[in-house]
Fold this protein.
Amino acid sequence: MTEKVSLRPVDAAEVTVLVENSIDVFLADDKVARRPERPWDPQAGILRAEHGLSLLLTVYVDGHSQSILYDAGLGRDTAVHNMDVLEVHMKELRAIVMSHGHIDHYGGVEGMVRRIGRPGLPLVLHPDVWKDRKIVFPTGAELYTPPPNFQDLDREGIAIVEERGPTLLIDGTVLVTGQVERHTDFEKGFPLQYARHGDDWEPDFWVWDDQAVVVHVKGKGLVVLSACSHSGIINILRHARRMTGVDQIFGLVGGFHLTGATFEPIVARTVDELVGLAPLVIVPGHCTGWKAIHHIARRMPEAFVQTSVGTRLQFTSL
């Protein structure tokens, strides 16, 4: 049974792409996206791209703004460096949310906390992020994916908030979904992943720690941020609608994990379902994959927005 929440609507939401896999300095502004200024000297103040994701979400209510950080990228200082270039300040930051326990999403947390220098800042996460994991590719090659280090985070003064269920932040305006219910018959988690259990490795395909962030823009609908969508992006969107009672998807931003031979067979079905859910704005990136992104762009040209490091996405009720 889905746990229902009362999500307080906001006047506007802004998503700043601090870390992403790609950057295109020649992209133009559009209906939602505001691209960063181009520097006079390209070598001074250049933004960095990497295989990682970090999104800064700012909500606006009655003329006041507050923010959360959703993930922190792979490199220890990538997000912080890009913040400096973009002149982004964290005075209004209320919490950090960890989408799941893969290093391309938490690698920059310690560097970010050191920069902010605020003891007791909440870090909201699912308890499964502490699992010791590896990815076994179809070729037999293995990639070790260590969990974040609890002692290091505790040493930095972070207030770790472990929660399997939903969490409301910023006076009830930001929802962290917690564990996402799985109902679709084609979204099977991450079939390449295993977790250590004693001396053995066991299948850990469902990645139960995968969680999204949701806001409700007044009169427009939900803005959903999803980092890797190991839950399945369709499961995530349907879960957000069931939890909030709001059907319209205003914006969808993040990684949908449709890249590689394991996931490409479900691209067409996923995009069919996305078309049916009809988000007004869709910004796929990170692990979505080239083929899936281009399929989305072809099928949903009016909604599609190209992502890039430094982009500010503006979702307003006006």
Remarks:
- DSSP finds seven helices and 18 strands in the chain.
- The first strand starts at residue 12 and ends at 19.
